Amino acid sequence: MNLRDRVILLIAPEIINPRSMPCVGLGYIGTYLAAKGLQVKIVDSQFTKEDPGRALATLPPTLVAIGVDSRTIDRGRRIARLAKQHGHTTLLGGLHVSLIKEAILEFPEVDFGIVGDGEEPTWQLVEALEGRREFARVSGLVWRENGRTRRNVNTTESNDLDALPFPDYRLAGIHHFPLYPLVTSRDCPFKCTYCTVGNISHGRFRSRTPQSCVVELAYAKERYGVRGFLIVDENFAVRKERAYEFCTALIEADLNLPWTAFEGVRADMMTDAFAALLRRSGCRWVFFGIESSENGVLKAVRKGSKMSRIERAVTIARRNGLKVGGFLIVGLPESSFESDMRSIAWATEHLDKCQFWMSIPYYGTALYEWVKTNGRLLRAPVGDNLVNSLSTMPYYDTPQYPARDIKRAHVIASLRTGVEFFFEYIDREAYDRMHWTRQRADAERRRLLKVATRWDPFWAEHFAGRLPKAVDPVTAARDAAAVAEEPALTNDFLGTLGSPVPPVRTLPMAVR
User: Fold this and answer.
1) Residue 161: predicted pLDDT
2) What does the pLDDT average to over 14-18?
3) Contact at 8 Å (CB) between 104 and 79?
4) One Pfam family of this protein, by short name (predicted)?
5) Which tens digit of pLDDT belongs to each residue from 397-407?
6) DSSP β-bridge partners for residue 231
7) Helix %, strand %, coil % for the chain, to 5?
8) Fewer Cβ neighbours under 10 Å: the N or C end of the chain?
């Protein structure tokens, strides 16, 4: 196959949750291939919502590379099947492939997989498809040979990250967007049992120079008109000297870009000097991976932190003018309904914003192996609804923490940290934007309150004064119809889960 005169097609499957940033991984790979002289088109369905079917149908047979994680593997496989129908060669890469490795070829629609970094290996695969390289010499490749599945070690992961060209999102037709995703490092040296990245990295940590990162931000501001950025590393501050140097370089560059340390700052890295420097450099938010307020749970998942350190980090960050967010997980090993309720109470009292995830035993992680021995796997840890909504069901349970209680804890956590958003969304001042009548907005608010109080009685007391009093008969009939159409959150495969919940008197963060 001569790919020099073909357009290489890279696809990021759409995800259910809205995305405010382009796909970084395909941005890097596409730009790397373009620098080698290839024609590249990226269909970033997770950002632009573009349908990849049109490109698959119109391009002559070519290499179609699809980046997948555990959320998008099902969609990626559907895209691969469509690609095969149009005569294309299919390659799957991304985090999910790195987790399951050779097993990706159990799907007949997949011709090749790449485990690990994808920039140079994808170029090497192009060379192999053109007959200029043996498949056995394509780094990280998973392929079929004489009826057997084979896999090569990825030797490119020792390459200099600063040597990679900055992602060119114009390959996906993206010319302007407000928030830039900055990757300053890859991998993670820690071994948290639930984490995919740490289980793949095997203690490895690689970083870029701070100067290269700041140059990329200046480039992004000029090219895309970005107004801020997120650091999306797993471990931005694991080497504190490098984090200090980045903040100092950012101050000296005077780019005037507010930013968020969305990931990558461990609580035990936080000091007053570091927090003050973060603030001076334009950082406004810092998010910690907290997981649980219980030391026993943190120890069970090998988090490497204690609650006293986390509380100290939150205090330091706030003292220096930073907003503090956190990520927590419901249903971890050694947790219980009562301990998760204590985590909810702590988070809503101490954090400005947080997200509670359902514990997910991703393939290839130590948590997955733990569940096989100690619990009951209820469904595969893949699919559109993997990361989470009120309707997400537990992926596993144990005799000590049954699924119905995990579900209750997760829904209460979501309501306590997010229900105010929904009330603001359908507030009476917003009904014009929604093209609703005022009566419809009031009905929606009553409907939401009914759902919320089913799971967590706290909301009946808190929102009682905000709901309309008497309504006319027409509105009452419309309200009744809306309630009748309400999705039955409790009618799932685990049966009725909406048991009464003892009230927790801590004020929800969204209300503060």
Assistant:
1) 96
2) 73
3) no
4) Radical_SAM
5) 999 999 989 98
6) 182, 261
7) 45, 15, 40
8) C
Quick one: pLDDT at residue 429? Answer: 47
Three-class SS state of 302: coil
Sheet holding 112-114, edge to edge: 39-44, 7-12, 63-67, 89-93, 112-114, 141-145, 148-151
How far apart CA 295 and CA 283 sit, in angstroms, is 29
Instruction: Give the mean pLDDT of 222-227.
Output: 96
Angle made by CA atoms 163, 165, 170, in degrees to the nearest 5 = 170
Strand partners, 353: 325
Grouping H, G, I as helix, E, B as strand and the rest as coil, residue 60 is coil
Q: Is 432 exposed, middle or buried (0-12, 13-18, 19+ CB in 10 A)?
A: exposed
Check pLDDT > 90 for residue 78: yes
Question: Taking a C-beta distance cutoff of 8 angstroms, is the pair 341, 410 a contact?
Answer: no
Is 88:56 a contact under the CB 8 Å cutoff?
yes
Report the Cα–Cα distance between both ends of the chain, in Å, rounded: 61
Q: Other C-beta atoms within 10 Å of 484: how many?
A: 8
Structure tokens at 326: 């956190």
Mean pLDDT value across the chain: 86
Rounded to whole angstroms, how far apart are CA atoms 436 and 98? 47
SS3 212: helix
Q: Is residue 362 exposed (0-12), middle (13-18) or buried (19+ Cβ within 10 Å)?
A: buried
Structural contact between residues 314 and 343, judged by C-beta atoms closer than 8 angstroms: no
What is the spatial distance between Cα 15 and Cα 96, in angstroms, rounded to a whole number?
14
Task: Annotate 286-300 with three-state secondary structure.
Answer: EEEEEECCCHHHHHH
Residue 222 backbone phi and psi in degrees, to 5: -75, -45
Structure-block tokens of residue 240 = 């504190």
What is the CB neighbour count within 10 angstroms for residue 385? Answer: 14
The two beta strands, 376-377 and 396-397, are antiparallel
- From residue 166, how far is each of 30, 179, 240, 276 by CA, in Å? 10, 16, 24, 29
pLDDT at 413: 87
Structure tokens at 113: 């997989």
Minimum mean pLDDT range among 34-38, 147-151, 154-158 = 154-158
pTM for the structure as a whole: 0.85
Residue 492 DSSP code = B
Q: What is the mean pLDDT of residues 113-132?
A: 97
Name residue, tokens 């050779």. Answer: 102
Distance CA 228, CA 185 (A): 19
Distance CA 352, CA 349 (A): 8
- 278 pLDDT above the threshold of 60: yes
What's the whole-number mean pLDDT along residues 366-383? 93
Does 506 score more than 70 pLDDT? no
Instruction: Taking residues 180-194, report their average pLDDT.
Output: 93
